[in-house]
Amino acid sequence: MANNISNTTLSLTKISCLLEAQEVVSDTLATFYLAGWKTCPSFIKAREIVAAMQMLYPDRLAFKILLFEDREKFRVWLKASQGDFAVSFGAKSKAMKHVTSPFVWSSNPTTFVGGCDDLLLFFRSGIAVGRPQGMHTSDEVAEISSTAVQEKPIFDYDLVVIGGGLGGLACSKEAASFGQKVCVLDYVKPSPQGTAWGLGGTCVNVGCIPKKLIHQSSLIGEIIRHDSARFGWKFDNEGKTVPVFDWKQLVANVDGYIKTINFKYKVKLRSKNVKYENFLGSFVDPHTVKLSHPRKGTKQITTRNVVIAVGSRPRELTCPGGEYAVSSDDIFWMKEKEPGKTLVIGASYVALECAGFLKGMGYEVKVMVRSILLRSFDQEMADKIGEYMEVQSGIKFIRKTVPQSISRLENRQLLVKWVDEKGKTCEEAFNTVLNATGRDPEVAHLGLDKAGVKLNEKTGRIMVKNEQTSTSNIYAIGDVVDAPELTPVAIQSGRLLSQRLYNNSSVQMDYDKVCTTVFTPIEYGCCGLSEETSKGRYGEDNIEIYHTNFVPLEWSLSSETRTASNSCYIKVVCDKSRDKFVLGFHYLGPNAGEVMQAMGLAMRLRFTYDQMVNTVGIHPMTAESLTILEVTKSSGGATTGGGC
């Protein structure tokens, strides 16, 4: 791999496999050695300082650079060199306790210098150059070496983040908090239906936030229709009149709230001294980014590091007339008309969530699915969700088919044609067709080839290791990489990345045991492995499943929600070979997200079944059911829970 430095005072032969070395100058009065990992900001600054000094004193100073690929390899070198340090600098030298990049020492005589700030002080003292006649004073050295770096910076920015979603914003603000000069680029290309939005990415504008608010509206509608009378509420003396749902009012209110969030994000960036540019970013080379805007034109900026956080967009429907379909980019922003009778195409969580809240608001809804529901989730839980949506919510599923064509009728409705699983040609008219067949990473416009960034050919997403791409100064986070497509994951990985780049942290993102919730009419929360994955990974004989059905107390007065077909369900997947260590947790019922957050912490702490059931529950809450799980699947025992 890398070459070793043959004439260094320290013996480096035993770790040469970890080292990349670049010889700068030789045979001069004093030679300085700089060891560090190549994207470390302090190491880069130290190299800029010595470059300036070399220009001042080309005949008196020499520099050798020991360049490591990453922080871990640098630390391995430090540890392996402790014996050499003790011999060269003394067992009580500060070198023995120095653990950060850069590590600087000099020869003639052998002297440990320290880090970046120590190096600058060393030059200011004049020791390094000896100050012979005609040489600059220490103050002049300090002034020249500092201005040589500051007046002509190598890059416009320390970090450019391409993408203004929550992951990109978290990364940029964290980097700025460590004194880095940061720029965020964010421009939303309108959807095929013309929908665009402000700062904050998918989650804030067309994802988590509007979805959760509209889901809540749907739940309120269900309570009004099915539960309110049972709980003593009447809307007139005869109990017949119910409120009328107003889609346009709901969308306007949600829109107003989202715009306040967009504005707050801009204010927050400004307060953190992060430059915000409403431009589309693409690569010219690994350190140069082109900014484009259809009205503002183009320009270029340079940067030391880049984080790609552009997220993903809905996949387009490819059948004839697919352009008539709206996507999740559009459904929350339909201000001019309500959805009406809707066909949802897809079996993803987006498809089922949208179908659920539209039905809850009183619209007729059908869902067309090609294969199984919620492919990446536990399939028993997915089937239970499908059963609930069909039996309890009244949503019809058109299974094992895809649309053959969509055409617009004279009355503005959309005529959808398909072939059912029996081979019969079918057609039906809808007011809205919602395409939710998946999402693709938004990478086509980035010019990744110009920066040497490689994609996973199977998924189309950027290949990374610890968020670092195939180009060392370019990183990627969020939906654009092969990781859980969840906003908190993007936020956490972005924040931790900045801490590693600019605050000497070594904490990596842990993508295991990440909680998530699907906001279908009956909510589903999960963390860890599915039953299928657990059996495949550890063997069916080593897996024990504890499970139960239950009816939440708040559902007990309503005959509609008390029926057995919609009873809630909990499943805990355990490894019998490891003290019933919990591998996966699955919850189907109200407030699933609130229940799952605590379980996520428990799973990160590697809790066991015994610890769970020995915890005192809160009565009478649905989460209390976790503490009284007794029935195993292998026993075949009944799982119907009793009431309070």
TrEMBL record:
This is Thioredoxin reductase. InterPro entries: FAD/NAD-bd_sf (IPR036188), FAD/NAD-binding_dom (IPR023753), FAD/NAD-linked_Rdtase_dimer_sf (IPR016156), GSHR/TRXR-like (IPR046952), Pyr_nucl-diS_OxRdtase_dimer (IPR004099), Pyr_OxRdtase_I_AS (IPR012999), Thioredoxin/glutathione_Rdtase (IPR006338). GO terms for molecular function: flavin adenine dinucleotide binding; glutathione-disulfide reductase (NADPH) activity; thioredoxin-disulfide reductase (NADPH) activity. SUPFAM superfamilies: FAD/NAD(P)-binding domain, FAD/NAD-linked reductases, dimerisation (C-terminal) domain. The lineage of its organism: Eukaryota, Sar, Stramenopiles, Oomycota, Peronosporomycetes. Belongs to the class-I pyridine nucleotide-disulfide oxidoreductase family. It comes from the Eukaryota. One of its GO terms (biological process) is cell redox homeostasis. Its cofactor is FAD. Residues 516-627 form the Pyridine nucleotide-disulphide oxidoreductase dimerisation domain.
